[in-house]
Design a protein that fits this description.
The structure is a homotetramer of 480-residue chains. Chain A contains 14 helices and 12 strands. Chain A has 480 residues and is an alpha/beta fold. In chain A, the strands form 3 sheets. The first copy, chain A, has a 6-stranded mixed β-sheet with strand order 1-2-4-3-5-12. A 4-stranded antiparallel β-sheet of chain A has the order 8-9-7-10. In chain A, strands 6-11 form a two-stranded parallel sheet.
Chain lengths: 480, 480, 480, 480
């Protein structure tokens, strides 16, 4: 993977920033004002999706609500794209450039939690909850897209703004199938965001990841009477695990390999004829990861061969690492600074303090939600996202906004509590404005898009062709 | 364990048989006739319990029906003994000798099957079924006890016959708790039987077994972001498994160790903080097995120590190997020969042929259900039973009767089909008569009991004291 | 493998014994007297070979001494047979029947010990010693062969007696190559013996065994700088071991699998590019063992595949289980009874008592060396011998004589001390006489040979064809 | 560990460099000239030590030659310090400051190679060779110390220059024992260097490392007859390995754990009673490493507990990571630039080209030996050195000089060929001059030492106390 040295990056970032500053800016004030004008409506939508709390590929009501909102605002909506009933593309405008804004709206299982409550209190025990704030995510992106549409309409400029309604980010990989379907083929830049406990816009990457179910099959037999006539599928799986653990020494140290066992036999007196686990590997570079994945498959084959069992695997997820783009990140960071952070009311401050009392370990200071973090270049986060796949077919930028109280991690009940409260809404509006400003800049300044595109081609290589190990069809049933 | 050579055993068996034959026999004809007279009633009871198909410790209706039957016949019933609501002891008569007949009545999960059907066809999909024929088991023992009672009553002899209603043989170990409670302390001999595909009475043993749940606990952590802050409970469990597999080389070859993994983590991106498996060990001698079990516990402790996790285990089952008794086996075998085997009607023959068409692999010839197998001495079966615990506190004998079509194994749907059909009833009556005759012999001939007791003391050792690793309280919830 | 039940065997043995007794016996007195007459000379030869203490395939002086002894007695000697410089066949007589007597003469590494000393005291520290008593073995067989030759010469009977000088029994497998070369193709019966701490002649078997060196190859790399560029051969080998340990559960319980690691890397900071171990498997039936061996090979292949290494293996040893022969064993046992056991002088008794003071654990009583053990039928010893291969191409019998003080195990310094003392010589003479008498019986009674041959064919099957996994050439360097 | 961000470091380095430049420089010209004047003599010494090629703790002649050289130049020599016969400290001057120059002189086993030969050609097959260039190392340091002494003597300044003759750097850890003995307690700065294929002076660290021999003990038994009576030491060791491989997931990713098996049993038919391996762990921070090491010990204990064996371990090596010092590195880098790189004659160029033809993989360009690499700050090399221990008790700096043809790695025969040739001598002189200039600067400018000391205290913490897991006595026999 192309990775500039830190020093080179700093210079580059400076240059880009200066250069961008020299161009005609988009009408930031108008765009932000349009979002402020709709803020009650957007708050209601976000709250509704928070209440729907629909799991991946089951986001029927959430998707419909967002589609309706965009259609009402003048967008043309194609629904059920790429074989996914809840995926859609909403488009406005004509011709080039084409700027995409990405929306997500799926919830997470088991994390139901009352909004604005600073203690664990499910709305419905065991039910899903928006612990990654995707209720805010999809809504902010819609707000940004509508603001841009209004500006395009008012100015009469050519150019297209699109909203990509991408389902099942949490493991289902909706964007992967949208990419494979070619839905981004004419897009010039993509803008995404993510709920967070801080405001930032970096030229950063993520870990590429591949996950699969491995299923070993053997021969059942009575474990006391005739163990010699059995072939233990669990032996196969444990031998696989053993060789994976040996493999750890012989892969680049940034690699991650992790697994759980989901089926390990039925009763101790029967030699298990089926054993199954979920396996996942990650690395900062998908092209390196694919080589590691090949070795993982060999470990599985070797385990089956060596234990007299058979093995088959089914890839459930394959996300590319995000290909960062310094050019776009510099624009996005400048706009985020323009928008500014999140300011709490006294009640919000009190809630934030109560939430923080439930956290363990060190965390960013309370108050940091009001600041914008310095732009980082060249870092690699440990998370993985299907936005990675988008970033290898179109120059992509992502911004984070402080929808969560500082210190609150995603995928916690605290995140659900924030995502359903006024704090979450405030962060959502920061993100909406920051994205709208960037989309405006890109539509207004073709040179920025050209520079972004040049950097994009240089980073991924000229002869790059997108491939993925993802399954042939979207795993629509993966949360059922 | 005392184990006579085959040749010595043959001589012994001959001698015992001859000697027994010299004693005053019980009125075999009267006992058998009493059972024949009640055969319709017993068939109805067996069929009802077959329909109840209640799992271990949940045999409320089955137990109540048998209690009522015995009470109606003049027995005094103590119910809910040894802390088990479905356990009971029914007693008739006064003074010595005291002969126990053992009854079981629990079904097996998931094996519901239509009676008399030669194809897989559940009555209720997923529901329990009498795949070990315990509906016949409990009923035949009641029939035998009642016949003996009638004879005692008619003859005016002193002596006591008892029926032990022992729940949850299939893993719950009802008899273990009855033994520990001291319910057998004044018993002179115990007689049991088991449904089978052949008629036999051997001086044979079983494998002692101990089973437990092992639960490893670690520290959860995000497997990509901070695997170094996690401690994988699954690592602990797999290291335990690894050392168990190493242990196999260094235990006596008759040992069995087997396990399944029941919990191996929730999602691949979280370091598992809990992992759990069911582990079982067996050996022909409980006293050797307890030493092996100590080493298994050390392997678990070593795995926890070496992986930074903790482990706890809960014994779920502990069954002694059956202590055989040549004296009693010789009596029981002679009586089984007297009773004779099972004879099929043309319809039954046709059904048997259809059932056999569904079997895989070699099997005893059809027709063998009419014969009595030669008595075997000194063999060790691979099964385990809680009758083993009874056999170490009182001289015990067990008989098998052909309730299943030859070739049908227990714990199959075919066994359920037979256990609910007339074939099962016929085998049940063979068992009932064989046990009644033996109980009669023992009550009539104190010398036989004395010889059996001397052999019993010689085999187990004079200073033997019963101990068990079984849990403090019966696992009443184990099937819930 | 054909295995008669114990009861059937006892009857068979009785019948054979009776029938044999009805035939014309060989001149037992003359044969025994011939051996007694040469006893000083045989004692000197045995002592010389004890002093040579030459390892497998290096028995140049020992082999030459025995060849000279036999040649001087009128045998025709073919030396260097089957590609082994120290192997030879010495033959006397013409025509049928042909009776083979087997001799061995290799020592064991590191077990040098002063003769007749009851404390550990090497003659030369680290040097080889005759801890399996093969100095006595080769000499007794020569004495027997010469006695038989003298009788044949005196009587003018037709018939041939052969001495097979078989090198490297201790792992080198000289007899395997002699068998493969067809050197036994015209032999009617083979007679062997082994030094022991008791006198016995059984119809018993041994464990078949296959042993091999497995060598894994990987890619070396600096273990700190670039472990990801290395492929650890030791990973391959340990994964192989892991799967072998899993395999233990799923082979018949009489199987043995054992291994040691001989090369496991050079320095901890280098990823090992070579790892090597010695692996051995055993089972009572070579034909079952070959199936298990195939699975062991698959485990090795699976380990290599799964760890990115390669593996090759070289079989170093392949010994068939001994195919017992009740007919021959009955003859041999009768002759052993005729010859009688070993009687100690007061000095020998004192030495024996001192030796026994160095032993640990239970042992046969002192004095038992004077008795002959009852004949056992159908047992399987845990040892392995290349006499097994002979036994599948010609009916074979083996006798043991008490050359060691009761309780002394082979392969100990105590065995070396006995093998070089007068006690060893006395046991040697028992063996020589017992074999001579049996050879005489077989040459005199063709019917016995016919019966032995019929049993032999029945046991091994009519379509049997000898095969072996042994290496193409004898491993002449295996002790260098 | 304190680790400045790259950007902060660049600024710091710039500031330090500027500030250092403002101080009174040492007489660089005079120091360099003194070394040039002695270059033939130093070349002879280096060549002699190259020929001695003595292993760690056996460097008797090498150490004596360097001691004599320093004594002849006016140094006072203490030999046999810290319990190591070949360690010494040579001192000149009085009072503060005290500047230490570090010398090493041990060779590596098995790497004998003809000097100036571009093909593998041992001088003596299997003999040691100077594959790490320590013949140059010890000599250059002596040349630098003598030049500084001459300047001190000529100028009459107060101050002390010391030469630390440190044996057995290659695993024996001579400096560890010198540090523990307190031999550096009054030293203000330490200067070391290392032969390399480039010229550089960085503020860089190394990996801390701990290595140990782990020995498992079990119970031997015949692996076929009584495997259940054995306890395999190899089981213990392989279970340890297994848990180490599991541990890899749960330590920081920069950690290294590597091992080889040195004893894994004697013969496959004996359950191994002893198994032994060499284990090594590394991490950029010794204080983190010690925590990891504790977990490794627990894995060993757990393996022993779980397999019924016992384990003991003996630490053979414990080296701290180098504590870098930006202040000293800036001074050293400036002086290295002043001295300049290595320039080849046509013959040397031709040799270099031939050597490069024997190399595999990418390498720095030929010609780069003439340049000085830019100073790096904050990097961590994968190597480990006992200079690390020195660096935690006194501010320390290290310089590399191009004694090897670009692309030649240490510990190769190519390195031996270079270390014995004129190319090696040229690099040695670069190092000698660079160190002399730095020692001069430090003696002349107390403020630099003060700044270095302040940085040193800040980095290691104020309450730091040196500890080491190294054995109580130097492992004087480790190469025997």
């Amino acid at each position: 993977m192309f990775r500039p040295t830190a020093a080179a990056s700093a210079l580059l970032a400076l240059a880009v920033s200066t250069w961008v500053a020299g161009q005609a800016p988009a009408p930031a004030g108008a765009l932000a004002a349009a979002i402020d004008a709709g803020q009650d409506r957007y708050a209601r939508i976000a709250k509704q999706i928070w209440e729907f709390a629909e799991l991946g590929y089951q986001e029927n009501r959430s998707s419909a609500l967002l589609q309706r909102t965009l259609a009402d605002a003048g967008f043309t909506v194609r629904q059920g794209v790429a074989g996914m009933p809840t995926a859609f593309v909403a488009s406005y405008g004509t011709g080039k450039p084409v700027v995409a804004i990405i929306g997500e709206f799926d919830a997470l299982p088991g994390l139901s939690q009352a909004a604005g409550e600073a203690a664990r209190q499910p709305v419905t025990a065991g039910a899903p909850g928006h612990a990654c704030g995707h209720n805010l995510l999809g809504t902010a992106s819609a707000a940004a897209a509508i603001a841009v549409r209004d500006w395009l309409a008012a100015s009469g400029r050519s150019g297209t703004v699109r909203y990509y309604g991408a389902p099942a980010e949490e493991g289902g990989g909706g964007k992967v199938y949208m990419v494979r379907e070619g839905l981004f083929s004419d897009v010039d830049a993509a803008i995404g965001w993510h709920p967070s406990d801080a405001n930032s816009a970096d030229s950063a990457s993520t870990l590429a990841t591949i996950a699969a179910t491995f299923r070993f099959s053997g021969t059942a037999s009575h474990a006391a009477v005739a163990p010699d006539r059995g072939r233990s599928a669990l032996d196969g799986l444990e031998a696989f695990d053993y060789m994976l653990n040996l493999l750890r020494e012989h892969v680049p140290q940034e690699t991650r390999i992790h697994y759980v066992i989901k089926k390990g036999g039925v009763a101790s007196n029967i030699v298990p004829d089926v054993a199954e686990g979920e396996y996942q590997a990650r690395h900062p570079d998908m092209r390196v990861l694919q080589g590691i994945w090949d070795r993982i498959l060999k470990a599985a084959d070797g385990a089956a061969l060596g234990t007299g069992t058979t093995v088959e695997h089914h890839v459930t997820m394959s996300y590319w690492n995000v290909l960062p783009n310094d050019t776009l990140a510099a624009v996005q960071h400048r706009n985020l600074v323009t928008v500014g952070g999140v300011h709490y009311s006294p009640d919000e401050q009190a809630f934030a303090e109560r939430i923080r009392a439930t956290l363990i370990g060190p965390a960013a200071a309370l108050g940091s939600q009001a600041a914008i973090q310095p732009m980082k270049v060249g870092t690699v986060g440990a998370a993985s996202t299907d936005l990675g796949d988008v970033s290898w077919v179109v120059p992509t930028v992502e911004v984070d906004a402080a929808t969560f109280v500082p210190g609150v991690a995603p995928h916690t009940w605290q995140a659900v509590a924030c995502a359903g409260s006024s704090i979450g809404i405030k962060g959502m509006l920061v993100a909406a404005k920051a994205m709208a400003l960037t989309a405006g800049d890109l539509l207004a300044n073709p040179d920025t898009l050209t520079a972004a595109k040049e950097e994009f081609v240089r980073r991924r290589g000229a002869r790059y062709a997108y491939t993925t190990l993802a399954p042939e069809r979207p795993p629509l049933e993966y949360r059922k």
